[in-house]
Specification:
6 helices, seven-stranded mixed sheet, 7 strands, single chain, alpha/beta, 183 residues
Length: 183
């Protein structure tokens, strides 16, 4: 009898921990490539550049056809602003391919501690993402930079890596200062 109960409990535990409930397929997610963070009088605005695979798949589209779109969200906190941006999309956000975070110098100066806390506490935050600050709106950089390339955030990422003008999230959290991005 003990063996039967043990076997049933073992099967129950194994099936509980091996179930795929709650998982999502990447094709059913919005793949974020770049994030811009700006402050407002009432909170935070995030600007997200994401892959839009419905773009650029026509017969005459060249290699430089932009395949991204941009969406914004507002909230009292970064997490709330991200949540509100996500509500505007059909699929949930995926940050596993995110390359850059742009933050306005004004926001970073006023909210540095809260910003760092959000980078630490958000499970979607990755330590290897490049982070930099902007003069003026970070959202404008995410919206307008390198529009003639397929994935503008990737172009910015490559430029920053080449010129060594950005730090990673982990370096920033360890005390490194942010560089300004210049287009």
């Amino acid at each position: 009898m003990k063996r039967i109960i043990s076997l049933i409990l073992t099967i129950a535990v194994i099936s509980t921990f091996s179930a795929c409930s709650g998982s999502e397929r990447l094709k059913n997610m919005t793949v974020v490539q770049g994030v811009g963070i700006d402050g407002t009088d009432s909170g935070v605005v995030v600007t997200l550049q994401y892959l839009d695979l419905n773009k650029g798949n026509g017969k005459n589209d060249g290699l430089s056809t932009n395949i991204t779109s941009v969406i914004t969200g507002e909230g009292d906190t970064i997490a709330e602003a991200l949540k509100n941006a996500e509500k505007k999309l059909a699929d949930s956000l995926f940050f596993g391919q995110n390359k850059i975070i742009a933050v306005s110098d004004e926001f970073e100066e006023k909210h540095q501690d809260a910003f760092k806390r959000s980078l630490v506490s958000d499970k979607r935050s990755r330590p290897d993402v490049l982070i930099f600050k902007t003069h003026g709106s970070a959202g404008d950089v995410i919206k307008s930079a390198h529009k003639s390339t397929r994935v503008p955030a990737d172009s910015i990422y490559k430029q920053l890596k080449k010129n060594k003008k950005a730090v990673t999230v982990s370096e920033y959290l360890a005390g490194a200062g942010l560089y300004y991005y210049r287009q």
